[in-house]
Specification:
Number of strands: 4
Largest sheet: 2 strands, antiparallel
Shape: globular
Order of helices and strands: HHHHHHHHEEHEEHHHHHH
Helix content: 55-70%
Number of helices: 15
Structural class: mainly alpha
Radius of gyration: 22 Å
Mean pLDDT: 91
Oligomer: single chain
Strand content: under 5%
Length: about 325
């Protein structure tokens, strides 16, 4: 069985224990990123990466100042990420976030005149592993997973899974969806996808039904985001990273219905949705009395620039084609 993701970040530790100096450095760096017009999504990812490291450092390095840390401190953290099963791309992204913040400190002679050398400069990134296996989830199994979540009144996670599987949206795109007019439309608000492309995501009756249950359970609040975490005064929009954690937790639900553990990720929902729309098994097609969607439609649904890209999201059917052609 593959390793399951271990959560490092802890909100309570961040709020009450992390060294104020480290928080102030991060806040200064946020202002620097904003002044350089970094994309909001980029800033959000950098901030989460750095917060995660600072929470770890609070527990493992006696809350040491980042300005006093050595290369071995950072290497120890990245080794721990590897042991927890983090991907090479994830580790390299966290390295980039920390490296850039420390470079900001090294270059700011006014605020951090005693910090001259960015110790992260010479820490090499982790070599990227081979392309990950693509996991496809069958329509019937996704259907059963959603039913289990609804039975347990875990409506928000059921909504995340259902919206992802109906819209074929990327995690980043689903994360941008707002609750405003969600029950009265079949298209989300405008979201920003890869390369700044703007579009809406499609969703259908089942997603709306679950959204209604989620809104009733959620109650009234002024947060526009579709997904939230926390209660009372601490309620806030769910982070991009939270959606990944929900996906990892859904692996246990999948194991319940399938009898085997599968290490799928949020992008698996996108692959699976397109495959099920293409082979005619998606429940939306049954609802609309359609047999399947041609690849030209799948391309538009996925907001791809080319059919070749869309084809790469689907299962390789070469063997089936040959078997049919030669009656094998």
């Amino acid at each position: 069985m593959s390793k399951k993701r271990v959560q490092i970040f802890n909100q309570e530790t961040w709020d009450n224990e992390v060294r104020k100096e480290n928080k102030d450095i991060l806040n200064d760096y946020i202002l620097e990123m904003k002044s350089k017009r970094k994309a909001e999504k980029t800033i959000e990812q950098y901030v989460f990466d750095i917060k995660m490291f600072l929470v770890w450092a609070c527990d493992e390095l006696d809350n040491k100042s980042v300005l006093k840390m050595k290369k071995r401190d950072y290497r120890r953290f990245f080794l721990g990420m590897q042991e927890r099963g983090a991907s090479a791309s994830r580790i390299n992204r966290v390295q980039c976030s920390l490296r850039n913040m420390l470079e900001f400190c090294a270059q700011d002679d006014d605020e951090y005149e005693d910090y001259e050398i960015n110790v992260m400069r010479n820490i090499k990134g982790v070599p990227k592993e081979a392309v990950r296996e693509i996991f496809f989830l069958e329509n019937d199994l996704v259907d059963k997973m959603i039913n289990i979540l609804v039975e347990r009144q875990e409506y928000q996670r059921a909504l995340y899974l259902c919206l992802s599987f109906e819209s074929a949206g990327r995690r980043n795109e689903v994360h941008q969806v707002l609750k405003t007019d969600f029950l009265t439309n079949s298209r989300t608000n405008e979201v920003v996808g890869k390369r700044g492309k703007k579009f809406t995501l499609l969703y259908f009756n089942r997603t709306k039904e679950i959204a209604k249950l989620w809104f009733e359970q959620r109650g009234e609040d002024s947060i526009p985001s579709l997904f939230v975490v926390g209660k009372g005064a601490s309620r806030r929009p769910a982070s991009y990273e939270t959606l990944y954690d929900w996906c990892v937790a859904l692996r246990d639900v999948y194991e319940e219905v399938a009898g085997t553990y599968m290490e799928f990720n949020p992008h698996s929902f996108r692959h699976s949705a397109l495959e099920c729309y293409g082979d005619g098994t998606h429940w939306v097609l049954k609802e609309m009395n359609k047999k399947s969607l041609p690849i030209e439609v799948l391309k538009v649904l996925a907001n791809h620039d080319s059919i070749e890209t869309t084809q790469g999201y689907l299962k390789n059917k070469d063997e089936a084609i040959l078997n049919e052609a030669f009656g094998l």
